[in-house]
């Protein structure tokens, strides 16, 4: 009998692994619909959908291992990081998905609310929040929407040697800022940014990527705390901006 392993679980959804099958349980039908549709549209490798019976989505395991984890050194090769950048570029060059994404105004409104919460609840020193909010301002500008993954953190990108074998967790996919994906991919791994950009094959605004590092951290810490995850890696990135 296969062992059931809880991969991740919080108040919104859970993922279980049974052998080589992952079972994603999400009671938000709209979010689950986005994930399934995005994987079908994405021009990069994604897990095979074995079956779907809402609220459960069954996915085949990907070969290889994740590029790394936030807060830990990555053992993936420079070529693998460059391949991740190339995969991001291929996604961003694809046709837009038909559902709407967030506007810069919506992002800014959410950011201001999160900053107020962090200070009011004493989660972070005021100077850390203020400094990162100032840096984040560069990301809040008009952007040309592209097909973004929306949560392209390194634990969601799998590689086997120097090759990308797939990208998981597409529930946040939609039209968005290309530099947000690149920033999410390199969050906490600034030393890998050059490899990613080399694979991406286009000029990017490094100040905007750094701004997204700060913005993502400010916007994520509260969610992590409220869902019983350790926010320390994101907090460490925010404090490093001082």
UniProtKB/TrEMBL annotation:
Residues 35-204 form the Aminoglycoside phosphotransferase domain. It comes from Spongiactinospora rosea. SUPFAM superfamilies: Protein kinase-like (PK-like). This is Aminoglycoside phosphotransferase family protein. GO terms for molecular function: transferase activity. Keywords: Transferase. It comes from the Bacteria.
């Amino acid at each position: 009998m296969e062992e059931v392993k809880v991969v991740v679980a919080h108040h919104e959804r859970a993922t279980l692994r049974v052998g080589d099958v992952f079972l994603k349980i999400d009671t938000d039908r709209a979010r689950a619909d986005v994930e399934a549709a995005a994987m079908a549209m994405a021009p990069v490798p994604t897990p095979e959908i074995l079956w779907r019976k809402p609220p459960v989505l069954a996915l085949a395991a990907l070969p290889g291992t994740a590029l790394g984890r936030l807060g830990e050194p990555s053992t993936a090769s420079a070529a693998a990081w460059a391949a991740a950048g190339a995969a991001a570029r291929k996604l961003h060059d694809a046709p837009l998905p038909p559902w709407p994404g967030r506007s810069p105004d919506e992002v800014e409104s959410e950011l201001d609310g999160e900053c107020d919460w962090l200070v009011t609840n004493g989660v972070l020193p005021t100077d850390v929040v203020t400094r990162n909010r100032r840096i984040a301002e560069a990301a809040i500008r008009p952007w040309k929407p592209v097909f973004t993954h929306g949560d392209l953190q390194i634990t969601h990108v799998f590689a086997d040697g120097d090759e990308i074998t797939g990208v998981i967790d597409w529930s946040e996919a939609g039209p968005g800022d290309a530099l947000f994906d690149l920033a999410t991919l390199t969050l906490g791994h600034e030393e890998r940014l050059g490899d990613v950009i080399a694979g991406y094959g286009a000029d990017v605004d490094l100040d905007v990527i750094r701004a997204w590092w700060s913005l993502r951290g400010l916007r994520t810490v509260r969610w992590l705390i409220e869902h019983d995850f350790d926010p320390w890696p994101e907090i460490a990135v925010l404090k490093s901006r001082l």
